[in-house]
Prior knowledge:
- This protein has a domain at about 5-200 and about 330-370: Penicillin V Acylase, Chain A (4-Layer Sandwich), CATH 3.60.60.10.
- A hairpin with a 4-residue loop joins β5 (about 65-70) and β6 (about 75-80).
- By secondary structure, the chain is an alpha+beta fold.
- The chain contains 7 helices and 19 strands.
- The chain has helices spanning about 105-110, 115-120, 140-145, 200-210, 235-245, 255-260, 270-290, and strands at about 5, 15-25, 30-35, 55-60, 65-70, 75-80, 95-100, 125-130, 155-160, 165-170, 175-180, 195, 300, 315, 325, 330-340, 345-350, 350-360, 370.
- The longest helix has 20 residues, at about 270-290.
- The relative contact order is 0.19.
- The chain starts with a strand and ends in a 31-residue tail after the last strand.
Amino acid sequence: MCTSIAFEKEENGPQLTARTLDFFFPLETKIAEGNSEKYSFVGMDECPGKYKFAALTYKDTQFLFDGMNEKGLSISSLWSPTAKYPNDDDIKSGKKVVQLTNVVAYILNAYDSVETLFKDLGPNGYLVISFNQDLASKKIHEFIDKSGGTLPLHFIVTDSEGKSLVIEFINGETKLYKSFSPIDTDEVSCNGVLTNYPPYNIHKDNLSLYGTLSCTNQEDGINGSGLYGMPGDVTPQSRFIRASKMKEATMFPQSADDLKEYTDYKNLNDEDLKKVIRKNSIMQCLRLIQDCLVPTGAVIERAKEDRAKDDPTIFNPTKKEKPCWFVGNYTQLFFVRNHQDKIMYFQYYNDPTLYYYSLNGEELEDSWNKKVPHYMDDKKLIENYANLDIVIQIKLQETVEV
């Protein structure tokens, strides 16, 4: 369970995106830095390494699941229970196959625009995403086993111009949904929002049922009446509706001149005004994505008999001998990306501090955030992690234990 939002880009402002990271066991997230050298990927002879990037990774594995590169292009992977990837036997000759666990690193390494990626992944392109589980490392297999034996994902990619692309895998076929022209009349467009099940086209159909809802109050209605009837549960369908409607509330300050119209800001210099704009924009995104958070305890599932009694996620409200429930998905962290300044801002579930990570190495002196401490348990940064001796520099047909 996760939610991703690409906010509408203001004419004079940066592209901003946000996401939650929801799962039912701790992901022990760390930050990986990739440089612009060439790497070898699992199942591939070569990757066109062009761009520096920073990404989130599961433990010390080569599984990168979210990141942004120096060109301001981001990609998020989210859980998609019905995903069925192209079968290797059905892939046409001449196609370049990218392994599922390498998708984030490959796209961040090689692309600066969503339109180019769409062309390469489309029916006339040369690229195809698949998953050969035999090529995964031991730790990736451990993750898959803990996750239920599968790794069903879909992706949303957004560039610095505000163009987005959703990538899904339905019955062995790659489905692409784009936000940019041309879009045929019978084509499902991308609105910049992604959650989980069901497939994207069904989400868009569901959204159309709430077309009359908006942030504008109903005539003679009470405050908030414009969104009366918006679903409030944490299912993917409801989070998709909320995220789509919350995009309407993205009232970002557009320029220093706009701010100077307000008494509180009219005496600030341009540099201080820039900081105010940055802060207000990021905080607005954080508040909007928070409407899609999943608190611990909001999702409870019945425990199976073979589940370990010492599992810390198990609890037993009836005090019987056997555990009967366990905590399901919850939001472990959520963050906002500034695609212009190449900065990511993080908040962890148990830590209200707002941390930042600058891809350009920029040191922010603002009092409202702190430099990211990397993973909140061990506080250790994997320096130059994606020098990628472990992350991407994996030889053809080889598996690596890290």
